[in-house]
Amino acid sequence: MNCPLCQTVANKPFFNKDQKLFYRCGTCDGIYRDKHTYLAPKDEHKRYENHNNDVTDIGYQNFVMPLVDQVVTNFDANHHLGLDYGAGPGPVITKLLKDKGFSLKLYDPYFWPDATVFDLSYDFIVCCEVIEHFNSPVVEFKRLRNLLRPKGQLICKTSLYNDQVNFETWYYKNDPTHVFLYTAATLDWIAKNIGFEKMELNEKLIVFGI
What we know:
By secondary structure, the protein is α/β, with parallel strands linked by helices. Helices cover 27% and strands 25% of the residues. It has helices at 41-49, 58-74, 92-99, 137-147, 184-194, and strands at residues 13-17, 20-24, 31-33, 81-85, 103-107, 122-128, 148-157, 180-181, 198-202, 205-209. The strands form two sheets. Strands 5-4-6-7-10-9 form a six-stranded mixed β-sheet, sandwiched between helices. A four-stranded antiparallel β-sheet has the order 1-2-3-8, with no helix packed on it. Strand 4 (81-85), helix 3 (92-99) and strand 5 form a beta-alpha-beta unit. Helix 2 crosses helix 3. It is globular and about 50 Å long. The chain starts with 12 loop residues before the first strand and ends with a strand.
């Protein structure tokens, strides 16, 4: 199986146990699930429907607050447009930013499948716990890069792997919809090869800028 991000051919499995098969790319350092174990779209949709994304839940609001703070700190609500990409059934980031006066569009292939959002351009795009679901990350990141206006930001939140993590016991790999996992080196590769001018990493907050 070729790496879904950089297309490098995998030489051998990185992890193969309990019906979980992953490869690790020698070029971009991404870790990706074998495509033959992907969920069918209807099963993937059903799993997303079970996510507890209640926009009024204080715990979930706190979880997404780093992305909200990044937008509020760097953009003016009166002059900037955002996109909540992969918003899911409960678009809490959109709610919190709209409460602060920001304008946002929503997109999610299952819950907000409005393709007209791709006819616009955006000052910021937020992806909270989304990029690990990308079946084709190279296509997705190029799309997001091309949707950004000058000085725009793609703001992402995901859990990163590093070699201090025990992959066998790492909870993040166990979600069958998590098909592509990232390291810091993977993010550097994306920034350099997709056309971003910079990438900032702060704990789980990732900011690509142009």
